[in-house]
Amino acid sequence: MSNTLNGANMEAKSEFSILPFDPLNDIVLVIDDSRAFRTLIKRNLAEIGVSAVLEAEDGLAATALVLHPAIRHRLRLILCDIIMPVMDGYEFVRRLKALPASEFSCPGRNIPVLVVSSEHSEADVREAMASGVNGFIVKPVDTATLFKRINILIEQGVCRFTGEKTHRPKPSPTLPEKETVASVLPRDVVVRPVSEMKVIVVDDSPAVTRLLAMYLRKIGIVFVQELNDSERAMDLMAENDLIITDIMMPGKSGFDLVRHLRSQPEPASSIPVMAVSSLRDIDKIAELMSYGIDEYLAKPFSQTDFEEKFISVIRKRGIFGIGR
After folding, report:
1. 95, 138, 176, 243: which could form a disulfide with 273 (CB 3.0–4.6 Å)?
2. Are 144 and 12 contacting, i.e. CB atoms less than 8 angstroms apart?
3. What is the pTM for the complete model shown?
């Protein structure tokens, strides 16, 4: 997702129009097993005028939506991940393309599909295209790229929204940039996209750091540093935007890392911290919170558990595309 307000993105926004989307007649379906990513991509779509968006966490759930009589005749576009539980994106697209074209309002071979995935090897792209998709977007996704790829499908006649094409209003030149941004975008849209976050994950278990890094990349975060050495983490924390750390580790503990971070000058002392631990002692957890931990995630945890805590941290701080 991209809610950036830096100069480059403001310039990119001025170059595209709102898509000709009619919320009474048009629906876009987003399929991804990451709820956080679905939330972020919906924000991207909202920026370009797409307001009627349905969500599914895997291909099986999406199939049920696609076949629903109240949905299928309004479905104009599907954004689909590849790696998902129950039914992956490849199988979903193959089944979708096997359905009779007469069942859908959109012309062409059924409904157009854009794959949006962090899996982007040559083999992944070949298999996706062979299954019948209409395009491939690599995560993380920014609004300008999303608009461009959807607009290509519209120009090709593959995807037909039923609304009228309108242009994004130009900001008033008399207003300072800050006021213009506040007047055009929702209050919770902020300066940088989540994809630009730099995250450090610290745990003495390589399996845990790999798992957390995988969850972060599913959300769309590119810059993830995995460390199993807490001593080294102590020197690198200040270079990141979010710290995710275990508590009970050899050498420096999570307590030590948080104490050290909070003792640093701004802005390092304000970097949000998520503690991930099997610690169950209420007093110890309370002590952690007193040091300035933003969220505590108990092991073992699911992807959903992690995403809930991640969104909570971002929302509390009002940063990276999800506001307070």
Report:
1. 243
2. yes
3. 0.53
